[in-house]
Amino acid sequence: MKTEKISELTTNRLSIYLRCLNELEASGVETVSSQAMADQFNLNSAQIRKDLAYFGEFGVRGVGYYVEELRLHLMKILGLTETRRVAIIGLGNLGMALANYQGFNQGDFEIVALFDDDPAKIGVRTRSGMEIQGAQNIGEIIESEGIEIVIIAVPATAAERVLEQVTEAGVRAVLNFAPVHLNPRPGVKVKNVDLTISLESLSYFLANPSDEALNVHYREFLRQEASNNGALG
Amino acid sequence: MKTEKISELTTNRLSIYLRCLNELEASGVETVSSQAMADQFNLNSAQIRKDLAYFGEFGVRGVGYYVEELRLHLMKILGLTETRRVAIIGLGNLGMALANYQGFNQGDFEIVALFDDDPAKIGVRTRSGMEIQGAQNIGEIIESEGIEIVIIAVPATAAERVLEQVTEAGVRAVLNFAPVHLNPRPGVKVKNVDLTISLESLSYFLANPSDEALNVHYREFLRQEASNNGALG
DNA sequence: AATTGTGAATTCCTTCACAGCC
DNA sequence: GGCTGTGAAGGAATTCACAATT
Predict the structure, then answer these.
(1) Residues by CB within 7 Å of nucleic chain C, which ones?
(2) Which end of chain A has fewer surrounding CB within 10 Å, N or C?
(3) Which is it for strands A109-116 and A132-134: parallel, antiparallel or unpaired?
(4) C-beta separation of A188 from A226 below 8 A
(5) CA-CA-CA-CA torsion for B10, B15, B16, B22, nearest 10 degrees?
(6) How long is the CA B63 to C1' D1 vector, in angstroms?
(7) Which residues, including other chains, have CB under 8 Å from residue A215's CB and lie 6 or more apart?
(8) Of B15, B98, B172, which has the smallest distance from its Cβ to A196's Cβ?
(9) Using CA atoms, how far apart are residues B179 and A16, in angstroms rounded to an integer?
(10) Distance (Å, rounded) from C-alpha A18 to C-alpha A191?
């Protein structure tokens, strides 16, 4: 167990390990070695061991890791022991889709509020019956609903203002879909999902077939996950 | 101009530079130095210069870069001189949203076909009037429509099979929203958008406030973009 | 015998700093 | 004088390889 600063590349991989362990547990596997996991899921065994070792000594030499136990450790480390309450701001196509997205609404994240400043949208309900509220109440509802994560799905020009507003209300974690860089205050984490960059990256690949950027494994994947925070947009 | 292999971190940054240049051009700026761009958009000037230098000598010493000219160079490098034709497979909430998403339908990427294997969805039209087609025709329509990029928005369990199918039809670039790792054949590029990892990363941050993972700049952001390819899921 | 946890080696990426050019 | 392009330095992440442990 170290005290070093832990890279976001490492914590992103924890999510992947958790997903692997969920699969293994569903298959009835009780223990797994880092090598077996690496083989099955295209990972590097030393990296798995090193990543886990930042947080404790979870393995047993000669045996491997107990699947159920490690799974619970990872849930704990990732803060997934209680459901996180989420709000979506901006109910255009993307925001609406996210509001209905099953991946969110079953499990560790629960969408509990929807906001938009378009009067035509206020009062509209999603398929699941949740009502879109006006933007003027964001602050108080975030506090009263105990919202910890905000998803920004507004146009690029409005994103910075929305970040300001939710930061003011005490939100410290933001998932930003607007294709723009946001400068969060210290202590606030913004994670970006930038579809433009993803698509242009594919376009680059098509335009430059000689760059055999194929079969990239976790490295490349997680780098992008990690950089979806950072900076500009 | 080098012949080195170019990292995906570099090409992802090209997208960001392009976005900056679009803004600068819209503001009427005609030339810009790497330092000025770095200051304005939270970048590192040496990195901008180095990234650009992989592709040519676009700058003028003592002056900087001509905004319009560099913009065109980047469009060319990123393969954005012609509209890329895109299909979406899987018209659940997410797929439907992407089908209606304005960011795609104006500009460099055009959605030209929608597929789903749910009989209840076949024949349904999006807001813009595009009709969802059955999955059995994917191969021939991909070829006849000249589709170069496929967006996978099916459940995790179906994603690998869909990848196989579109690869067979000649598609070499895939944007995968299913939370699962896909193993593309050599020469095929898969870019992942994994909302689970993004959200769990925010949850980790909330659970571990001491890790001041704040104010990460391009490094972190682009790593995640880069890693959205790689491996498992 | 098998597998972890980890220092050392390696590879990859970023930043510095300056020669070269406009 | 100002700025690019780039070699060299520095820093970070990954992988190797093995001592420690069950």
Answers:
(1) A 2, 33-36, 45-46, 49-50, 52-53, 57-65; B 7-10, 44, 46-47, 49-50, 60-63, 218-219, 222-223
(2) N
(3) parallel
(4) no
(5) 140
(6) 11
(7) B183, B184, B186
(8) B15
(9) 10
(10) 20
Of B14, B181, B221, the CB nearest to A230: B221
Distance in Å from the first CA to the final CA of chain A: 36
Across A57-61, A114-118, B93-97, least confident range: B93-97
Paired tokens of B185: 């054949």
| Cross-chain Cβ contact A227/B230 below 8 Å | no
Q: How far apart are CA A111 and CA A97, in angstroms?
A: 12
Count of other CB atoms within 10 angstroms of residue A98: 24
Which protein residue's Cα is closest to nucleotide C3 at C1'? Answer: A62
Summarised one tens digit per residue, pLDDT across range A141-194 is: 999 999 999 999 999 999 999 999 999 999 999 999 999 999 999 999 999 999
Interval A54-74 mean pLDDT: 98
A224 pLDDT tier (thresholds 50, 70, 90): low
SS3 category, A132: strand
CB contacts of B6 in chain A (<8 Å) are 211
Output the CA–CA distances (angstroms, integers) from residue B90 to A49, A150, B87, B138, B167, in the order listed: 36, 26, 10, 12, 16
Closest by CA to A107, choosing from A44, A18, A172, is: A18
Residue B61, CA distances (Å) to A83, B38, B58 in order: 55, 17, 10
- Per the CB < 8 Å rule, is B206 touching A149? yes
B132 is written with which tokens?
A: 């969802």
Nucleotides of strand C under 7 angstroms from a protein beta carbon: 1-7, 12-17, 20-22
Task: For the beta carbon of residue B184, count every other beta carbon within 10 angstroms.
Answer: 19
Q: Which nucleotides of D are covered by protein (CB under 7 A)?
A: 1-7, 12-17, 20-22
